[in-house]
Amino acid sequence: MPEVPRRTRPSLSPGILPRCFGQLPLPAPRRQPDPLLPSPASGSGSPGSRTRPAGPHGLPTQGGSVSDIPPVDIPEQWPPPLTSTPVPLFPLPGVFLFPRHPLPLHIFEPRYRAMIEDSLDGPGRIVLGTIPIGEEETSEHVPKILDVATLGEIARHDRLDDGRFMIILFGLQRVEWSEVESPHPYRLVQVSAFSQNEPAPPLAHSLDQRLRQALQARMGEDFILPGDTPLEFLIDLLCSRLALPAARVERIFTERDQAVRAERVLAAHQEAT
User: Fold this and answer.
1) Is 54 helix (H, G, I), strand (E, B) or coil?
2) Contact predicate 7/157, CB 8 Å
3) Residue where a domain terminates, one of 137, 162, 193
4) Do 213 and 141 belong to one domain?
5) pLDDT tens digits for range 121-161
6) Same structural domain for residues 164 and 262?
7) What sign does the dihedral 5-97-35-195 (CA atoms) show?
């Protein structure tokens, strides 16, 4: 892979990544093709051009030269506010982007290169939608995408000499989405906040302590998170550290009741120990 200068998005809100990520390795992403969407008209162009021919797929990657994300503080306003502007949809089979988590991606299909180009010209927001495993193998047309997705922001990008991108997509929040008409070769969606039920304080405190104990069992006794770390983040962090089948992650990821979500991930942790 050619060496390219690292570029950090200046528009990324300061303090969007919690300090604890200085202690966490990036999760190893799976090599999965993206959905078999109808191909746009083909074309040609030099590396880095805005030509948008069709291509077969885009893959998560190990992160390469953009994997060393510097830790900073979470902003006071979290999650960042949603807007009514349509957002590009990037579907991937069996891949989940958790809020407050980074995901390294290798973008090489031309339509999604165009998506990154257009996103970098704006706020850098992309919705990562999960295609259930097996769906892409049985669908003759556009495969199903989970109704619950994650709105992410391009935290860092490297533009390679041949026009491909290595990016870090940072999860902002769970969202629900509905597709809108797109003039682009990639899809656009309108997003709304994912409604979820938070447990009462006594139950929340009990779940908080159990989740912290589980995380320390996996990360080591020296792994300590601030006392005001949100319960949702503890749940997602533990889930991201477990090697679970995609179908089981889906049941956890899409659950609206935080207490149920916490119990499911704690049960998975116990089974794995």
Assistant:
1) coil
2) yes
3) 193
4) no
5) 999 999 999 999 888 655 566 788 999 999 999 999 999 99
6) no
7) negative
162 in a structural domain: yes
Instruction: Tell me which residue has tokens 């953009």.
Output: 66
pLDDT band at residue 80 under the 50/70/90 scheme: confident
Rounded Cα gap, residues 78 and 90, in angstroms: 23
99 and 151 in one domain?
yes
Last residue of a domain, one of 193, 213, 242: 193
As a 3-state breakdown, the chain gives helix, strand, coil percent values, each rounded to 5, of 25, 20, 50
Range of the structural domain that residue 228 is part of: 201-272
Answer yes or no: are the C-beta atoms of 90 and 34 closer than 8 Å. Answer: yes
List C-alpha distances in Å: 67 to 6, 23, 149, 163: 11, 13, 23, 19
114 vs 212: CA distance, rounded Å: 41
pTM over 0.90: no
Q: Which residues of 35-45 are buried (b: 16+ CB within 10 A; e: fewer)?
A: bbbeebeeeee
- Report the alpha-carbon distance of residue 57 to residue 107 in Å, rounded: 9
Q: Provide the 10 A C-beta neighbour count for residue 213.
A: 12
**Which tokens in the block code for residue 262?**
């916490």
Single out the residue of 6, 103, 124 nearest to residue 58, CA to CA: 103
